């Protein structure tokens, strides 16, 4: 038996303790990039950063479990990577170094250090110990030390080993370890398999390794919550350290720095810089729990390694490492892209159906057993409505392999025709759900759904106490993470796109229009063909799309953000937010009074009564009777158009009847869309439950529906009154946390505009600063009009606004608007460069990217029609900023619930409205909750400008602003 490529031999139990690993003939890839052979008498220590391997393995592989249901995808990936590494590299000594605990001595120095990092996923936690066992089984020494980080252990052993005349290779790409590079110590990037030495450090940090700590102390690190000096990034820090030599000299001479903002930032944050240096400086004098002589490289003991691989069901590794074909395993591992038993047809090859209708408990038990054996199943529910909080469960479907699926009817009725067909044979819903609950909650079985949030909420409300479906994968979100804007994310469309298959349509089984029947009345044969196919298609899509996440560089986005949003939004939607029915009624009465006043005014201005709600009659008044200019007729009906653009143009000209008509329409819309609709939407407890669509927008933003709570006007008196009807439960308050000018901050970051970045770092009013810059004004003399113009252009340019659009917004000639835009770009050339770069990316690649890597595909970017193409370019310009803001708040949302539980706080997240989160908080916990939420939100992402969050609270949503 041997390692792959026969690089290292494995001894049996009689092998001597010091048996060494055979050196590879060349470098890591046979091309000289890796670690060369060890000469006789040469001492080389390889220190492997275990955490890097663990998380890379966990996120690279789909879920997989061993026979007892314990997740082992990270264990499998770690074992495979370490075995492969050992086959390619040579050393006299080797060890894998692990972190021991979350808290270390650095938390005593700075309690906030790494405080905002999320806990590891629950399915990863049990794998940590198994990974240590894998390391032992491979014959490699494990090192960890409570109170210290793995990086400290690496620093200590590197120092000691070099002092004894040896050389050290650190297997990691962690930038924090680059401070250790010096003669005798190098790093090896485990992904690129390339060495990291002084030239690579100089390229990354702008300084030599011995100055890395000084640069990191200034720049900070939001990932680890190292504060640094606000407004100073790596590039600036490198320039300062190069000029002044070290941090202490720089801080002692900070008063002499010419740039005022940089000088003030250094003086004000000198102590933070010193603390940051202590946080990033690795402790080379840390305890060394294992003597160096215990780290002598030795071949693994074959029986021990084989036993470990068999216990965890790693059949492919058993065969690869020379233990035969892996036969004799009690139960093969349920790998996410394999079926354990006989080979099954590929997603494209297997026929679609026929499918089974499950009407007996014996048949259901058989499908449950098949599902457990498969380990990964497609799953779907059928209901009698589209609102998951008001619908009833009609049935559910399971797919255990492509082409092998069933439908379990639970709530079907007779067909309802004239013959009065009897209720069909089906399982008792309570009994069936009780049997399915252990499967659907089994952590060893992955449930794959399409639009999982809907199904998990339906089953959460199940009558037998609710079912917490977990773990889940969502094919809609997998596709959305890679292809937002490229095509729709509906299951039927993805099936046509990726499988070349048109699924049975809902209309074909329920009918259309007046002839449509509810799904509960669809005959079981048709219902099975439709519903079981949904689960089948979902599983096939998963088998095709899940492996593509990594190559599309969307794995982290899906795993760390989109997938984790499912339970977060489920809980928010199920909670809802309380509405004050009495206040809504008062608002409705007031709005009715205003509408009556506006109607009377309109009749007076028109000179006669008319139906104010009729666009046709209003058009006749404006253009036939009053002979106002600017009218245009509909090509379809020939009637005068009175849409918003027509009325806005007339109102801008001072036409009173148009101004009043607009006011009337606004109040009427608020009354019908919110006042009346919210009263009808409230449940028995007086709470409103919105539905967040997760994959509708191209930029990653959530969309609120049924009712839409994202379009309530913020700055109008009427909008504030409606928000005032959203209230907290007794003993609680509503807390609002809102990102301040987040898209402009992303603009400053992406465009790398020094003056804008400085303004944000200093907490200046960004619109006043912009006005002073582009209009050449003294900051103290920026008036409201100049600030208003600057604000309009700041936000307008993010949305790709043209000179014509700015002119319309400001009420100025297009030529003057062009002059203002030119002045803006002259002052901030980086903004123009960034926007041109974004448009070019869209034209050449078909998509743009947020600062965090999300791809946003731009439709019509290559359209021949100039108007469509211009619209696509505007969308392309806006996408990185709006998409970046969406991702930042999502990152915060997936972290906040855990942080609240960890802190013992009882606040509940209720709403997300663009850049704002709304919580219901016990009165006694307001201060602690506000501090925690602000901390998580402001540290949700790392930008070259600080994120700022405004927090307020009150009995109502309006008071919280």
Gist?
This protein is an alpha/beta fold.
* Low-pLDDT regions: 1-33, 326-344, 416-420
Strand element count: 23
Q: What's the arrangement of strands in the largest beta sheet?
A: 3-2-1-4-5-6
Would you identify the CATH H-level superfamily of the domain at 356-576? Ribonuclease H-like superfamily/Ribonuclease H
Here the CATH topology of the domain at 356-576 equals Nucleotidyltransferase, domain 5
Quaternary assembly: single chain
Tell the overall outline. globular
Mean pLDDT: 86
- CATH class of the domain at 356-576 equals Alpha Beta
Report on the structure:
This protein is α/β, with parallel strands linked by helices and 961 residues long. Among the domains are: 4-31 and 40-197 and 284-295, 5'-nuclease (Rossmann fold, 3-Layer(aba) Sandwich), CATH 3.40.50.1010; 356-576, 2-Layer Sandwich (Nucleotidyltransferase, domain 5); 580-688, Taq DNA Polymerase, Chain T, domain 4 (Up-down Bundle); 742-880, DNA polymerase, domain 1, CATH 1.10.150. The protein has a 6-stranded mixed beta sheet with strand order 3-2-1-4-5-6. Strands 7-10-9-8-11-12 form a 6-stranded mixed beta sheet, with helices on both faces.
What is the fold's blueprint, element by element?
Elements: E1 44-49, H1 50-60, H2 73-88, E2 93-97, H3 105-109, H4 127-137, E3 141-143, H5 150-163, E4 167-171, E5 185-189, E6 194-196, H6 198-205, H7 212-219, H8 234-244, H9 247-252, H10 260-268, H11 270-280, H12 302-311, H13 315-320, E7 356-357, H14 361-374, E8 376-383, E9 393-401, E10 404-409, H15 429-440, E11 446-449, H16 452-460, E12 472-474, H17 475-483, H18 491-499, H19 506-510, H20 524-545, H21 548-551, H22 555-575, E13 577-579, H23 581-606, H24 615-625, H25 644-652, H26 656-681, E14 687-688, E15 691-693, E16 703-705, H27 717-723, E17 726-727, E18 732-739, H28 742-751, H29 754-762, H30 766-774, H31 784-798, H32 803-810, H33 814-827, H34 829-845, E19 847-849, E20 855-857, H35 866-903, E21 908-913, E22 916-922, H36 926-938, E23 949-954, H37 957-960
Helix pairs in contact: 1-2, 2-4, 7-8, 7-11, 14-15, 16-22, 18-20, 22-35, 23-26, 25-26, 28-34, 28-35, 30-31, 31-32, 32-33, 33-34, 34-35, 35-36
